[in-house]
Amino acid sequence: MLEIVLDILLASWEVLEEASVYVLFGLFVAGLLRVFVSPGSVARHLGQGRFTSVLKAAFLGIPIPLCSCGVLPAAASLKRQGANNGATTAFLISTPESGIDSIALTYALLDPVMTVARPVAAFATATVAGVAENLFGQEGD
User: Fold this and answer.
1) What are the DSSP calls for 107-124, one per residue?
2) 89 neighbors 81 (Cβ within 8 angstroms)
3) What's the rounded Cα separation, in Å, for the pair 125 and 120?
């Protein structure tokens, strides 16, 4: 029984170790967003409006090369700077779905149609989720 617990702990540590690089990169991007993007600008573009803020956040997230681990600190930074829930949700979805690196890899491995379809699908799903969050989500969250 102790051996199973130790195996689980070791496997968990390995996963954390592998994800740490991506989380650190996400923290770096969050720091860059904090330094180069003013909170007033984020609040003005991503904090107001149910639809335009979501469209902007979904579009902003597409080219950023962050994985699902690294996008969390960047999205938290946007939220702290004044982005609304829908915009944060859209950014969280569109960013790991497609980045410049994954778009280039899609072009290399598949074809131009899939290269275009991937960011379009990321934008569409992020927009639907962000608008749904702004329309149906609770305001206090």
Assistant:
1) HHHS-HHHHHHHHHHHHH
2) no
3) 9
Contact 130, 54 (CB under 8 A): yes
Return the closest-CA partner of residue 134 out of 82, 69, 89: 89
Q: What is the pLDDT of residues 52-72, one digit of tens each?
A: 999 999 998 888 877 777 788
- Write the DSSP assignment of 15-42 as a string of letters: HHHHHHHHHHHHHHHHHHHHHHS-HHHH
DSSP classification of residue 51: S
How far is residue 89 from each of residues 2, 24, 38, 93, 127, measured CA to CA in Å? 41, 21, 20, 6, 9
Q: Give me 38's structure tokens.
A: 């003013």
pLDDT tens digits along 72-97 = 888 888 888 888 999 999 999 998 88
